[in-house]
Design a protein that fits this description.
The chain contains 14 helices and nine strands. By secondary structure, the protein is of the alpha/beta class. The protein has two domains: 159 residues, NAD(P)-binding Rossmann-like Domain (Rossmann fold), CATH 3.40.50.720; 127 residues, N-(1-d-carboxylethyl)-l-norvaline Dehydrogenase, domain 2. The longest helix is centred in the middle third of the chain and has 29 residues. The chain starts with a strand and ends in an 8-residue tail after the last helix. Bound molecules: nicotinamide-adenine-dinucleotide. Nicotinamide-adenine-dinucleotide binds next to α1, α3, β7 and α6.
Amino acid sequence: MRICVIGLGQMGGNMALTLQAAGFDVTGSDLFDSARQRLADKGLSVVAPDELPPSDVYLLSLPTSAQVREVIETAPGLLGLAPKGSVIVDTSTSDPVVSRELAAKVEAAGLAWLDAPVSGGPKGAATGKLGMLLGGETATIERLAPMLEAMSARYTHVGGPGSGHVVKLANNYLCAAHLLTTAEAVAMAARAGVDPAACLAGLNSGSGRSAVSEVNFPEWILSGRFDSGFTTGLMRKDLRLARAAAERLDMPPGLLQAVVEAWHADPEHPADGDDFNRIAGARLAAATPAEESAS
Ligand code: NAD
């Protein structure tokens, strides 16, 4: 299976290397020479965006739907150059409305579509242990099973085109909310004299636990490392997409709006380029007595 990975950032670069190590014929491409060079130095065959080779799969890992649309539609774009029968797999966290529109165009051009947004960060991409949410046809998923198995610890087919992106936005809304609520809970315990690490150990044995309390707090927040590889800017983008989806669907008022506002309250703290866990670190530090402060 020939796979062309487009977007060689934190996620795409690691996915490309994982697929190559698993024996697939992988070529990578990125808008920026520096990103291409970084992957070439790691042994990946790379090409400029106007030199994409004929492939069975075009795997996209791009910042937003705007770049996904550009790569698919802007001349020549994948619509013009991808061989009939090839599959476009969008692993980006994209706008489901745009994904559904692009999926229809892709299918009309004789190609197949799969949205396959991922969880697990750069580490999951580098180790083939991503979680993937799939939106597309069962036949496409069966065809791509060897590739999906090489990239992920688990993949879940959640519906037709766009469904993977819908569920990804729901997931990231929960993750963003858990970062705020867990920071507040740990800070409250700290003010009452409980050590944050001990508090986390207690929470993780109870019903308030989440991936945020089990993974993010020990790995990136209490450790002070803040090097998860996922930026605040990307999480803000996901939250705005979740809010737009809720508005379009005429959802009754809930907590989503408050979470979106909290994440956008101060554009510099954390800044878009900062690790997304900083939002919890800052809240914890601000609310925790000095001698208990985690970082
Ligand atoms: P990134 O910014 O590190 O990488 C994106 C890459 O796309 C960059 O190298 C950029 O140069 C390239 N690019 C931009 N426009 C392009 C174009 N028109 N043609 C070719 N290349 C282009 O981002 P990332 O952290 O790897 O995230 C990629 C996607 O995965 C995003 O949608 C993000 O929300 C999602 N995601 C990221 C993480 C994470 O932990 N980083 C986890 C899950 C999902």
